[in-house]
Input
Amino acid sequence: MAGTVEKKLADMGITLPEPATPVANYVPFVRVRNHLVLSGQICTDNDGKLVAKGKLGAGVSVEDGQKAARACAINLLAQVKAAIGDLDKVSRVVRLGGFINSAPEFTDGAKVMNGASDLMVTVFADKGRHARSTVGVASLPLDAAVEVEGIFEVD
Amino acid sequence: MAGTVEKKLADMGITLPEPATPVANYVPFVRVRNHLVLSGQICTDNDGKLVAKGKLGAGVSVEDGQKAARACAINLLAQVKAAIGDLDKVSRVVRLGGFINSAPEFTDGAKVMNGASDLMVTVFADKGRHARSTVGVASLPLDAAVEVEGIFEVD
Amino acid sequence: MAGTVEKKLADMGITLPEPATPVANYVPFVRVRNHLVLSGQICTDNDGKLVAKGKLGAGVSVEDGQKAARACAINLLAQVKAAIGDLDKVSRVVRLGGFINSAPEFTDGAKVMNGASDLMVTVFADKGRHARSTVGVASLPLDAAVEVEGIFEVD
Output
């Protein structure tokens, strides 16, 4: 039976993807006691296709960047579910780190990152309110528009 | 009554600003037990104005970058005080992450970041000696010259 | 007497360097209980010379980038040994953060970062399997091609 958080996701029309398997010698998450550290997730959709490719400020719009950030957040949730089985066991979204693939003159990274932050707060309410850092990076793996990493506290 | 750390700040002529309120769905800090995770702070002064705007290596000098990094550190301290009430309860500055808004050829990020590191060590002495990572990023929110995030251990 | 991990390193022909001393007001690691937070290490060899200098996608090949990432990982291990004395006390490599000095069009950062990840898994086996984030940054201190930071869980 789906928990409260997963019902919420279903109500929002969100199906969690199969969590992506890293293609290299690392893992999508490491749990140390109640601390769950998640690898950076790029903005793939449930078919593994990039939601937005390229740079903000050079072809990718803020709106598409927000969708990309939201996709990263969904991918983080898929990994959290793989790690702990039930998203209701998340006691706090501690931190998100947002990496925005940016042209040098792009300064709206915070708006883009809201696509990820808003999802967390919609889904987890107050438990979803997290610390975050947002920076514009020179490039990202596979030319993804956005990558988001996370730290969650879990029961 | 101000504690030892705040007296030190006053002696240095530093007044902590009103801690900035995030303009989005995130929070400036999350505390998990004795661990305080702080959102990236940009280099605003006590009036909310950027201390330095633009890129190191393309208009912003190393000296101005150092002032900007120092301002980020002061903003972190304002958030720490908001979180725990008394800066004397800081048992260790664990880590600072420095993001320097950089032209591609700028390689003096470490010098810039010293503006933040020096402040922490001046204020907290040995408790202020932290691990750090410094990287040059393609862009930052609002075109801030520097953003610094932090992890503090608190009583 | 060298422990299992150090024998493994010796078998691989790896001698740990003297751990680099930060040239500023920060420290190479901070330990909080069983949590070891390591400063970003750039890709210097045992003589302190950069293994690769400049940008991926603009002069530095993926192969040289991988060697650089591996050198960063070795430098992390030197710091871990300095912190805890015996690498056999590492219970988990929790997270690596990879910063790849990248031209804007370079998208193979994940391959580069494998140079660090592969070393950790070779040396620590399953304990070496870590969460990671890899991003392409605009510049790095001293124009290093790669910088890697880490979090280790230790006994």
About this structure: Chain A has one domain: 4-13+29-143.
